[in-house]
């Protein structure tokens, strides 16, 4: 029998920038290596393989034998390597010049590594906007694969999805395969014969079809329960055996082979979309819950299959609205990207070429997509992934500052719309710190970059409702697992990594940033404050007037607001300064005016510290004399003290707050409850420190206090020097 169906198997392997080395290693052992071990025993079965640049660089360094195996299979024509943007960014999340730059850079890298011309690519998370077609074509890529969901959204029926299509933007053309959602759920979760029967039906109805499967390689071993199912129980070998046994009518092909031997079905323009689940996750939480309930109510009705074709979820870019923390990373990334692009467009000394190349690589790494959104996996909720984004952005920024040629000690202050809210924010910078303040939103300090450790101490995350929190409330009192036969799809598995998570659900009503100004009812306790109780003013979200002062030696931001404390109108002024003489510290002064004499006043200033992990003995609070006060997740209410510090010995960072007037200090952790590959879990996001003062207003209605937030990274710098010395002394 002649070939009736071509089956394209496109496998996508990815680990994000910033993921733990042990996660890379486990995925390699559970998925990547065993899949290749089985594949090489079936030389008649070719695949199109995409390995993200972040994972491939790890494999090159840690598992070069795996690279040799891929090269061997490439040489014998069994693997077609797919390119794409180097570090797996969502293309809608980066500027056009970076899209093209990342794709071109990765194609060159792959060709040098494997000796194969790169013709096709993987679209990260299948997030598609039609304008990408011209960018992809400009990067010399001929074709890609998206989900059939995209094609249905364009009005195609199932019967029109058995091939590939031509598309165009701005006169540039490329080809797109529709990846089968049906196959995404049968491979590897159903018996192989179910897939074979489905393909046979297509072949009988539509001879000479092309059916494409494109999905994560991690579902072949890394996803819960799949390692035993796919390898120990032999699913993958049975699947490959079934493909070989039916090779008289079923031909397994690479994307390149299908393009070269089959004509496109027609022309198509696809709407902005992603895979079906992603569009649902992008919805606001309330709408997402409504969407789920709608599907549950209607899915058993006879016309459901017709109706669901016209259902649409959300738009990927709205993750930046749903999660302001994603917008903060995105906005910071755009600053670095634009600054780098401006430098490249100007006349640059040849001596800086290597620095520019290094800065571009750091920027590209910071664009890795996983930290910018949240769905079935942790993503944005994982602090180490967000920290990695800022680490690479700060590294790139440091390089650009080096090219700028500052003096050894310097300070500067600038105003611009840094977070894209149509209001101006303030950037105070020195050779050691970068601080961003939002006068239009509480005068909050919303980013604090430590240059030497490349850490943003305000890479925080608020606690907010998520749809799966209903499951936490239902089952959170027990470590519950949804037991199923075989391997369950990651989208349907339910597991709780800790008991009693329902008791720890809490939501924040203001951003967990620093210099958040709280006027409180007298006598409010730490526990009440943690529950969001006791507010007596309108300063937390209020708009402040701003005034900048600058000299070569010192920069200041003066913020002033007339607002309410109870029924009284008071004026609060806070001044934030950096001085060349102590460029690793922020000086903060609060001044109050118009306080009614004798009125009881309770005022607190909230600080949050992210990037410093909890639950370890080498990460702790300390008091005025250096005494340890408990690990960084400790809840405590200290009385009348003028200093508190936080130490993370692992990263070599010491942050201390000194007070000109003794205060009570509350500390407590911000812990989110989120879902990841392993289940629903409690994750430490930041440590909250709130100095607070209770006093009777003076007769003149004035009160003031000075705070100094100082950063000491000498331990980290000493370790870096030791490591550099060891590296330079090691023979090559």
Structural write-up:
The protein is of the alpha+beta class and 732 residues long. It has three domains: 5-272, 7-stranded beta/alpha barrel (Alpha-Beta Barrel), CATH 3.20.110; 315-405; 410-463 and 507-718, Beta-galactosidase, Chain A, domain 5 (Distorted Sandwich). The chain contains 21 helices and 27 strands. Strands 16, 17, 18, 19, 20, 21, 22, 23, 24, 25, 26 and 27 form a twelve-stranded antiparallel beta sheet that branches. The radius of gyration is 28 Å and the shape is elongated. 45% of the residues are buried.
Structure keywords:
single chain, 732 residues, alpha+beta, 7-stranded beta/alpha barrel, Beta-galactosidase, Chain A, domain 5, 3 domains, twelve-stranded antiparallel beta sheet, five-stranded parallel beta sheet, 32% helix, elongated
